[in-house]
Design brief:
Radius of gyration: 19 Å
CATH architecture of the largest domain: Beta Barrel
CATH topology of the largest domain: OB fold (Dihydrolipoamide Acetyltransferase, E2P)
Number of helices: 8
CATH class of the largest domain: Mainly Beta
CATH superfamily of the largest domain: Nucleic acid-binding proteins
Distance between the termini: 26 Å
Length: 254
């Protein structure tokens, strides 16, 4: 695993970074990762972008959920180098956000840090950090980033985000099965709709295509255009029913 980050101990509202290390070292492996993840709010990037800040400099909120320290998974799409920081743009199919990593110039350089993150372009990473806003633009600061080497972690994270959302709405058990993501003509899908067919198709094929069901395969079998298939899949992602697979043109059912 590429060594991106030394998770500091999350407490008192933030990460305690070891500024002398020039980065983070993940010495405790999976157990340490679990400790960090349990301290953060698992979300999608759409939730972050839709969050509001009722009180200036206060915590962000979305659907009764307070967002301070957040975690998400996505694909690295862009890496920009600055004098004192590297900005990494990450998207997860629901939206994109910038993650800023400050550079300790006593141990590294902008060029070296940029090269490190450019190696992860178009690959999935896990991100945990503090949600902030500057110039009306949300970003993640004090971030830890590491590559996702097991794509089952994507499923785990999405299920965690859904569970957290349901709990915040007071929805549990049978209530979750009785229309959490189903709505009327103004919402997601109607019984027998093409979107419903796309969802059922993904349910049938996801177990046999663990890296994702290709969009072209979906559209060919359902006799729809690629644009239509992409539209239905994006709506299902926003509804929390599917997520992107190995790349942005393949999908898996939750």
């Amino acid at each position: 695993m590429t060594d991106f980050g030394n998770f500091g101990n999350y407490g008192d509202g933030g990460f305690n970074q070891d500024s002398g290390s020039g980065g983070f070292t993940n010495e405790n492996g999976g157990s340490q990762r679990q400790n960090v993840r349990s301290s953060l709010t698992p979300v999608t990037i759409k939730q972050i972008n839709d969050a509001t800040q009722p009180v200036t400099d206060g915590e962000f909120k979305i659907h009764n959920v307070e967002l301070n320290m957040v975690s998400f998974m996505g694909v690295v799409r862009k890496v920009d180098s600055h004098t004192s920081a590297v900005t990494i743009t990450i998207e997860d199919g629901s939206g994109s956000i910038e993650v800023r990593k400050w550079i300790d110039d006593t141990v590294s350089t902008p060029a070296a840090e940029t090269e490190k993150y450019e190696k992860e372009l178009n690959k999935y990473v896990y991100v945990g950090g503090a949600l902030k806003e500057f110039n009306n633009k949300k970003n993640i600061q004090n971030a830890v980033i590491f590559p996702v080497t097991d794509h089952n972690e994507l499923l785990y994270h999405n299920l965690s985000a859904i569970t957290n959302h349901l709990k915040s709405q007071g929805v549990t058990g049978a209530k979750a099965d009785n229309g959490l993501f189903v709505s009327d003509n103004n919402g997601m899908e109607l019984p027998g709709s093409m979107q419903d067919k796309v969802l059922n198709f993904l349910r049938e094929n996801s177990p046999n295509m663990q890296e994702g069901v290709p969009l072209t395969y979906i559209t060919q079998k359902l006799n729809i255009t690629d644009d239509e298939g992409h539209k239905y899949c994006q709506e299902l992602i926003e509804a929390g029913k599917i997520y992107t697979g190995f790349d942005d043109t393949s999908y898996l059912c939750i």
